[in-house]
Amino acid sequence: MNDDFPDYFHEGDLVGVLTAQPLDRVLDYKAPEGGCHQGAFVEVPLGPRKVLGVVWGKGKGDWDIAKVRSVIRVLDVAPMAEEMRQFLTRAADYTLTPMSAMLRLATRAPGLGDAPSMRKVYRLGSVEPDRMTDARRKVLDVLRDYGGLSFTLKEVAEMAGVTSSVVKGLVKLGAVSEEESPRDLPYPRLDPDYGGKELTEDQEGGAKVLREAVRSGAYGTTLLKGVTGSGKTEVYLEAVAECLRVGRQALVLLPEIALTSEFITRVEARFGMKPAEWHSGVTMTERRRCWKMVGQGEAQLVVGARSALFLPFRDLGLVIVDEEHDTSYKQEDGVLYNARDMTVLRASLNSAQVVLASATPSLESWANVEAGKYARVTLTSRYGAAVLPEMSAIDMRVEDLPASRWVSPTLQAKVQLRLERGEQSLLFLNRRGYAPVTICRACGHQIGCDDCDATMVEHRFQKRLMCHQCGETKPIPAVCPSCEAEDKLAPVGPGVERMAEEAKALFPDAKVAVLSSDLYGSARALKEHIESIARGEADVIVGTQLVAKGHNFPKLTLVGVIDADLGLQGSDLRAAERTFQLMRQVAGRAGRAEAPGEAVLQTFQPEHPVIGAILGGDEEAFWAAEAGERRAAGVPPYGRMAGIVLSSTDVQEVFDLGTAMARNDAPLRKIGAQVFGPAPAPIARIRGRHRVRLLVKADKTAPLQQALAAWAGQFKLRGELRMAIDIDPQSFY
Ligand code: ADP
Ligand code: ZN
């Protein structure tokens, strides 16, 4: 320990403590009795409260020494490593976030200051009960199967399928032993050689590159690219295995919680035991255990959502960012950070390896490979007999279909064929709910959200209208709120729920299933539904982009994209890239097992270059063309950008500040950066707050953050005004 933390403070020494309170300065305290190390987690008095903090370094001594208070106590958790302190500092500089907010992100586990709590655990005892019952035998068999391992009462009862009183009875007889054990247990050891698959030549080549990279003990980033089903997961699990062998910790980031349970099962099959999990679906107790064990080096592998990157790893050797192009890696509120980019930063500070896995990498990563900053491993074919689906467009301009119908006769015939063959079809539409707009046929009024500039989306399943901006819902009104006409409100346009209705009408004998994240009460219900679909308990699946994210549907042989033009609209600079990725991901769902697949795109603009690139399958050409356009425009990844959103309940106030900021742009001009705006944000009002947007563009090498800080620092935010600065914005709302 002492070598890790050379800076040790004796009792009474002045130390600077960073707290998670929004003060944004390191405060002086006196080291407690027994002293403390740099990096120690401590409890300090702040006004009348006791708060959590980290010993950041020597105190500044710029405070009346008589008034400096003492650290209350050092917490019983591993101190923050030097690497982590550097990472938080650099990430704060990059995202222009106060350090206190970074520390909050790094301590998001409850009860870190609590004394280690104990609980009762049970294991096989030494005596045989004189009277054996069926229930008792089940308990003893289960415990015998697990050798010397111990479990909680609930776990034993569940595994044996008996009531807990049976277990208690055995404890009395001495057949089961009851012990006290710390609640936060280390995770079971993973075995890197437990269940490896035999890799194909292609896969083995990739695995070898990644294993060597891990063994190098140096920083490096590799883009692992391969079509869906090519075995990327199998290959990167080999890198994880190597990381376990060299005794360092590994982290796998996944974009979607709904995917974790399928993935955990795979990890267990590969390494014999379950890894630690970190995401919003994990209980508070388990979160604290994960945080503490990661800090003590007693969790070898963590599988989690983006915030797992801020866990206090002792020795992080490898991070996998699966589906690295996924937009959910960008946190869009609170601290605005991109977990993919922050992963690269953390790894570079810690001599760790990064693997970015995707079938459709982001242009950012593609450009970094081109520039020689990242290595690249490509898997060229699908595993086994599976081949990529054949892709074609359906030209909607020549299809004959009635209004309020969205499945063309051509697509309908293709689905019919699958039904006859006993195969599955997917109708893909990236829009939740029943209909995106509800309009009054008498006066033309569109029902909008009271607090946002957005139309309310009808969710017929929940019998309510919902705002997809703020989540507000209201019942579907009986009369038009504007003209009070009765029975005139009509849905316009399709959502997945409406598509399901159409599918049921077109294919009355088929089993139709809807897959949309909002239709399930819990992650478990969703997972069960996905599994039943995968087993073949649906003939036609109607789904949103949820289905694009890595689930396996072996019987699926047809993907029909209802509206391929949907993503091409809008002013987002990544619109083409997103559409390209999403369409290819969805198409990749078809024909994963033995039956070859087919993907069709319904479009009104079959000659659009993006549609052409998707159909042609010439990815490199698409990326080269897209890169060319962005380079010419000087936008990311060939230029730098920041979005500034000002908001307030007072519309005049936001515009005044926006105008003042645009005028006083000297700090930006100094680095050659340009300001655009102020303009109303694309969604000009959210939750009752008016929003104004400015965009800043700069050269790739310009010191953008410093200039932004100097610029924004000129303005005082009074009252209701809020300012959010988003470096490398991903969404433009
Ligand atoms: P990706 O991550 O590229 O989508 P996966 O790693 O999930 O691909 O592989 C797709 C399917 O093929 C999985 O069910 C996986 O277990 C199987 N698979 C891939 N490679 C092998 C292999 N070498 N041996 C056995 N099964 C494999
Ligand atoms: Zn709203």
Please tell me about this protein's structure.
The protein starts with 7 loop residues before the first strand and ends in a 6-residue tail after the last strand. The chain is of the alpha/beta class and 733 residues long. Strands 12-13-11-14-15-10-16 form a 7-stranded parallel sheet, sandwiched between helices. The chain has 20 helices and 31 strands. Adenosine-5'-diphosphate binds next to helix 7. The site of adenosine-5'-diphosphate has 14 residues, from helix 7.
How many β strands by DSSP?
31
| Heterogens | adenosine-5'-diphosphate, zinc ion
Structural class: alpha/beta
Main sheet attributes: strand count, strand direction, barrel closure: 7 strands, parallel
Distance between the termini: 47 Å
| Tally of alpha and pi helices | 20
Q: What does the average pLDDT come to?
A: 88
